[in-house]
Structure formats: C-alpha cells, structure tokens
Amino acid sequence: MSGAGELLTGADELLDRTRQPAAPPALTARAAHPDAGAARRAFRQTAGRFPTGVTVVSTVVDGQPHGTTVNSFTTVSMDPLLVLVSLGRGSRLHDHVLNGWRFAVTVLSDRQEGDARWFADPARPVGREAFGGRPWSAAPYSGAPVLLDGVAYFDCAVEDAHPAGDHTLLLGRAESFGVLSDRPALLFSDSRFAPRKERP
Length: 200
What we know:
alpha+beta, seven-stranded antiparallel β-sheet, three-stranded antiparallel β-sheet, 38% strand, globular
C-alpha cells in the first residue's frame, strides 16, 4: 500500500507542475542594447507587435496635392473633435502641412495595400502625378485629397504641433469627416499588411 501511495503522490506532484503557468519571457533592460542602432531595431520590432490601421495623410500647396502613408494616427477627443497624426520631420509632407496648417486623413481599405506602398515610396512622383490613376476628391475644408476607395476620412485644421524626437505630433481639429465604405480596413502588424479579420 505504501508503494501505491507514493505513486499517487508522485502523480499529484506531476499534475501540479503541469498546471503551473509557463515562465514568462525574460524582460530585457534597455542597457542590453548598448548600440543605438540595435536599440532602434529592437524598439521597431517591439512596437510592430501592436497592430495599427493604415492611412494616407495629405495636403495641398499652391494647387498641388501631396500625400504620404502614415500608421501613427488616432482619435484624441470627442469635445472638441480632435485627431493626432505623427509625421516624420524628414518627410516631404511635413513642411507642407506646417506651412498650410491643414490636412486630410484617408483610412485605407483592405484593397489599398498598393496605395499604402505607393505613398510610402520616397521615389514616387510629386504633386498631381503621385495621385494619378487613383480616384480622389478634394476635402471640403482643407482641399486636400481624399482617396475615394478608403473606408473613412477626416478633414482637419492643425490645432497644435509638438516636436517629438524625429517626428512632429500634429493635433488636428476635424472640420469634416465621414464614412466612405463598409469594407474592412487595412491593418499593419509585424511589418506586414493585412485586412481586418471579421469576428465569427
């Protein structure tokens, strides 16, 4: 009987061990990345685990439209109606928006991966040629291009601008906005584009 009891005790201990949660991954201090380039790469990889929508932010200068792909976009306030866009200070669009203090945001659909890649390409043409072959309309307030194949748009006045490292945070007051389509939105995660998956 003592042998059977020992076997049962051993089985209970085994079950207890299997019920224990797996050990969490080791947390890495920033000091583990002494090289600045390595730290930036690790930071980008870590941030990439957070899925975002994909937008094209645009403006118009002297009658010429300009736009770039941006995934750092979020709503901020319902009263007043505010959104936030983060623009790289080295991007073509950055100075255009700050000179005119107005911009539009098109939220891209799952069919617009090509547009997302196009407006992210630094070798793309400038002005109207960059929007050639893509249906768009001028936003009511800013006059900036809204891509009509998108799922939603926001037409904004720049409420404030805050330098933030190598980017500028633009706080936009939504002067007009609307839904363009009921298609799924385009998502970006782990350096890949993907449509939003519908819940079962």
